[in-house]
From TrEMBL:
Protein's UniProt name: Ferredoxin
Pfam families attached to this UniProt entry: Fer2
Record-level Gene Ontology MF annotations: 2 iron, 2 sulfur cluster binding
Source organism (scientific name): Methylogaea oryzae
Positions of the 2Fe-2S ferredoxin-type domain: 15-61
Record PROSITE patterns: 2FE2S_FER_1
Length: 115
């Protein structure tokens, strides 16, 4: 079971529980199901509208799942990721904090999602 806390300066923080074993649910889907007003458009990793910052709330190393090629490309375009950081991620196997909510699959970890 994962706790996902959504945070935005304009709204009250909201923590939702992701279903354990559901490894297909994206942060965006979870937000929409819980009426959290994250901006989105394409829902396919193409537009960058759903940009969020994801950080760990527990002491475990972030899992988060690898970035898709589309996600890396959009994050570089948005200046949230450098090409050097993309290369470093390939070596370190750690995801970046900036993600696209429509591309991040919820894992069994407690995270803070700033939108
Ligand atoms: S909604 Fe377009 S990239 Fe996520």
């Amino acid at each position: 079971m994962a706790n996902i806390t959504f945070s935005n300066p304009d709204y009250k923080d909201k923590t939702v529980y992701a279903v354990a074993g559901s490894h297909t649910q994206t942060i965006l889907k979870l937000a929409l199901e819980n009426k959290i007003p994250i901006n989105f458009n394409c829902q396919d990793g193409e537009c960058g509208t759903c940009l969020v910052k994801v950080t760990s709330l527990d002491k475990k190393t972030r899992m988060g799942g690898p970035l898709t090629e589309k996600e890396k490309s959009i994050l570089v375009q948005l200046n949230k990721l450098t090409k050097e950081a993309v290369d470093k991620m390939a070596v370190d196997d750690l995801p970046s904090d900036w993600r696209l909510a429509c591309q991040v699959i919820v894992r069994d970890e407690d995270v803070l999602v700033e939108y």
